[in-house]
Amino acid sequence: MPTNFTVVPVEDGTSSPDYDGRISAEDNKSSGLPGPYSGDETRGEDSPFISDRDWSSDRKNMALFEEEMDSTPMVSSLLNKLANYTNLTQGVADHEEAESEDGIKRVTVKGPQMGTFIGVYLPCVQSILGVILFLRLTWIVGTAGIMGSFAMVFMCCACTLLTAISMSAIATNGMVPAGGSYYMISRALGPEFGGAVGLCFYLGTTFAGSLYILGTIEIFLMYIMPNAEVFETREHNMRLYGTCCLASMVLVVFVGVKYVNKLALVFLSCVILSIMAIYAGVIRTAIQPPDVQICMLGDRLLGNQNFKCVKTEVIDNITYPTKLRELFCDGPFLNATCDEYFIQNNVTEMKGIPGLLSGVISHNLWGNYGPFGSLVEMRQQSEALQDYSNVNRPYVLNDITTYFTLMVGIFFPSVTGIMAGSNRSGDLRDPQRSIPTGTILAIITTSITYMSFVVLFGACIEGVLLRDKFGYSVNRIPVLGILAWPSPWIIVIGSFFSCCGAGLQSLTGAPRLLQAIAHDGIVPFLQVFGHSKFNGEPTWALLLTAVICEIGVLIASIDAVAPILSMFFLMCYLFVNLACAIQTLLGTPNWRPRFKFYHWSLSFLGMSLCLALMFVSSWYHALIAVVIAGCIYKYIEYRGAEKEWGDGIRGLSLNAARYALLKLEEAPPHTKNWRPQLLVLLSLDSDLAVKHPRLLSFTSQLKAGKGLTIICSVLQGTYMLRGTEAKRAERSMKTSMAVEKTKGFCHVVVCSNLRDGFSNLIQSAGLGGMKHNTVLIAWPNNWRQAEDTLTWKNFIETVRETTAAHQALLVAKNIDHFPSNAERLAEGTIDVWWIVHDGGLLMLLPFLLRQHKVWKKCKMRIFTVAHLDDNSIQMKNDLQVFLYQLRLDAEVEVVEMHERDISAFTYEKTLVMEQRCLLLKQMQLSRTEREREGHVFHQRGTKTPARHRERNSPASDQVHMTWTKDKLATERNRLREASAGVKDLFSMKPEWENLNQSNVRRMHTAVKLNEAVVNKSQGAHLVLLNMPGPPKNKDGDENYMEFLEVLMEGLDQVLLVRGGGREVITIYS
């Protein structure tokens, strides 16, 4: 009964609320409290509770926690909200609000009232006991035998029982809203598995509707109105009447599901009455077996076509041929030629139902299978049987080829329907208690029913009558109808309405399941099916369901539709068991089901049994179902919306990653497993955008999606002040990575200075054994013109720290000129200048680049340098052999560089370099003195707050100083004279003997090597060079930058490579 709640103002004694129950705006403004929660926000699934945030009254007594109250509730407020929460009926509006005349809002809440028996047990029993029981179980028992049928029923019921145990654990681990099994699987295994299995379950439910409709029409045409057939073939009649029945059912569901719910009790009553009638008939056979005679010709069963079961009859002492004889002979005469089997065997009548105590059970223990068109006989003949399907004889024939695995596929739909209780969790008073209890009791009840029926049918009915699928031998009366008491019409009418009700339930549930999948947004093309009309009916989903259901109806055979239905349900049950097993094995903290009688081994056994039944019943149907689910999985993974539901697959990935990381820690990687695990150090502009996006392109080309890639950058400052900017920078980097198709991880750190930030990243990036072994950075272009020397100093420190960390270093010059991922380089070369052995990294990098489609057409050339004492011919041969052993295709060339006298050009460049270094040191020293002088003057002449003094400290980028006009003019003249002195150096002849001879030799090497590289590789798409190490003495840092600049002068796209001190390529397999 609905309960009315009245929302009235409550005074707390400290502030008087206005007439509408809210604190006045002036009180809010003076107290600084935010306004009350509006309730308009959508509560997501990630919210642990469903409650409003209005706990401002707690602030005065809990002032110590007032800052936390904006984001976390007090316990008293939380418990109050939870106490008022109600889980309402699904598909119905949660609250019906009405305004009374006095302006007070009244909320009507309709709480769930159903218990275990009404809400779970009876719906499950009604869903499980259905069309297969009434139309096929006797035929299955007669064909497979009591032993085979019992084993079949036991396997199928054990599968559903184990699945129910797993489902009970999942269903009691929190609320299960609309979607039922789809919701359980998707939230336990993730959107990909959930969407794939959810759609398979939807298809299974839809084809179940087809099965029930075909069962309804079979009962109607075979037993109720046989004269209503329009076509000669049974299949065409099934298609015609099935389509009409489907249209009428869709119309009923479209008008309103409430009519279906009102008829549910009627349909359930039909099932129960039919079951009771069967048991009553079995008991009657023990007392007085029914007088049901079947006609046999030898061992062969004859269909009753209104003839007497004798060959001849005597009337007035005259023998006349019967109608039966005419069917087996050429004419209506006693001397007509007759069928040989008809002549050799007698025609006899025998009881079709000899009774429970007759001992017929011994004859029905084992199976009696036969091919299509074979005769229904007492015993299977050893010789090959003739095909009698086109012979005009009154034999009862097998309409399909029968074997045990087919029987399993046909029977399994009779044990489905165990999800009926979990799908109604919103209608239950206590779903966490009702779902396990009701579902398991329903399965036990129906399993006992099926097993008892298998034994009782085999003990009461002759085997040939059991194998008469459509009751041809007993005037087209169902075999169960003959057994039932008091009338066969109880079974006929009961099974008819049972199939009608089950079909309506399927057409009601399937569209809502599709609507739940569409609402989650994980399958983009299903978005349209999430819409519904004004009363909540999913119209478009219902239309799609009707179309798919029509496909099943056009198959026009229960025996053909049942295995398809079995595949989809078995796949759904398989993943329910998998979900429970994974959650149990992972030991997720949120895995706390109230149902305690489960174990991962039971779930694993149920999963294995489902998989076995899939391939046992029909391996090709199983493959089709797996392919459909796999395609849906890959589609959702590729195009579906990203969802984070805390699923078990993600937890499994975390556990697998942890295990793999621990294994990687046990030993360093072997040379054969070495690949560049990149740490890419990016620079960001003032807008926190990536300065060199082509660095990301080159990363993806070098990695080709393999291995580890960490994209990092550093912001200068403190995390408290720039934490938000760091998050925004990460989002910007992720966007750039997506555009450049770079797969990896990105991270932005905030540090007091860039040098320490890069140092920390080089030392600590990665986790455990999954750490980077190679650092990729861009060459600092225009470092000579930069006013701040920190750019190139940080670069050199990065080189030193990667060397100290035994990590490889890649430096890309003119990275903005490198090809993008969309480009396709035509015929060209990647030139490798192998000066010193660095572990083979120089030769490995071009091989990796050529795996990418951008560099695929480029050829690899390797140049090495020969000195005066080297045999260049032998070097070339040795290098070719070495490359052959390394399985690398490359052209080899040896460049001879003889020792020559150092040229004047080299001395000139060395002199300019040293003079420039000296000048810059003087200018830096002068600048430092000016900053110090201005800082002292500022401290003495002004009195500023401490915070202002910190902002104007020498460590800051901006220094505010007070200069006089004369002092400023003197400083400008001094700088102008210094610049003029630099210009004069180019025209004067230096004193060469005063130069540092080490610098002269290094410059000589850089100049000569640059000449050779430019001469050979100026037109190459990419040039790889050994990168010399930095000087140990930091005074020569700028000279080192000059050497590298000279080395790369005249080249466009250059990659400097410095090995990490270990071999990275091997000739062994």
Low-confidence stretches: 1-59, 81-110, 933-965, 975-992
Q: What global shape is seen?
A: elongated
Helix content: 40-55%
Distance between the termini: 78 Å
Query: What is the number of beta strands?
Result: 18
Strand order of the largest sheet: 11-10-9-12-13-18-17-14-15-16
Major beta sheet, specifics?
Answer: 10 strands, mixed
Q: What is Rg?
A: 43 Å
Count of helical regions: 32
Mean pLDDT across every amino acid position:
79
Given helix and strand content, the structural type is alpha/beta
What is the strand content?
A: 5-15%
What would you note in describing this structure?
It is a multi-pass membrane protein. Residues 693-810, 811-1069 form the SLC12A transporter C-terminal domain. One of its GO terms (molecular function) is potassium:chloride symporter activity. The chain crosses the membrane at residues 118-139, 151-176, 196-226, 238-257, 263-283, 400-420, 440-465, 477-504, 539-558, 565-586, 606-633. Pfam families: AA_permease, SLC12. By secondary structure, this protein is α/β, with parallel strands linked by helices. The strands form four sheets. A ten-stranded mixed β-sheet has the order 11-10-9-12-13-18-17-14-15-16, with helices on both faces. A three-stranded antiparallel β-sheet has the order 1-3-2, with no helix packed on it. A three-stranded antiparallel β-sheet has the order 5-4-8, with no helix packed on it. Strand 14, helix 26 (841-849) and strand 15 form a beta-alpha-beta unit. Helix 6 runs antiparallel to helix 7 and helix 12 crosses helix 18 (558-586). The radius of gyration is 43 Å and the shape is elongated. The two termini are 78 Å apart. Residues 1-59, 81-110, 933-965 and 975-992 have low confidence and may be disordered.
